[in-house]
Amino acid sequence: MLVFTLTPALRPDAAAAAVRAGDVAAVVLRMPEGAPDIAHLRAVAEAIQTHDAAVLVDGPATLAAAAGLDGVHVSDLRGLDAALRALKPQAIVGAGGIATRHDAMEAGEGGADYVFFGALEPPAAASAETLDLVNWWAEVFEVPCVGLAATLDEAEALAGAGADFVALAEVLVAEGGPATVTAAMDRLTSMDAQP
Description:
The chain is an alpha/beta fold.
């Protein structure tokens, strides 16, 4: 998975190039403050979807339908039930904002398509906790789990711990260049999890 913020600087061709560079299953698009630019959201989404990657919005469920997206990533678990009612079974509903094992179990049992460990904007010390949660989840549950990596070393560790998918933090993708980081991640995890 890749994480991008939908700013005017996010060009559809650049997003598509990042997806083409490896085996990317999905892209989570974070919404900036203020009213979203639906035309820009739709253009970026279509460029990504052309390469068989799902596009999820970290924002209101209404944006998924308005822009032709594949679903939503819910960062605040208080909104998970409403998103599940509004979008399932036609669209993907992922559960983020998970701080505890209890939160993860409730999200998985509630019908989330995946549980996401780590914040979309990771704090510097989150990797050990994320790795621990992925390790625990992968051994016990069938609902797919995603671990967020802020470095390629973290990505490799999460794949080795059993993450079904590894999300590459936006800061990592920005620093290394989207296509370069995606290709490097693909090589690191080709035997394990999918980015």
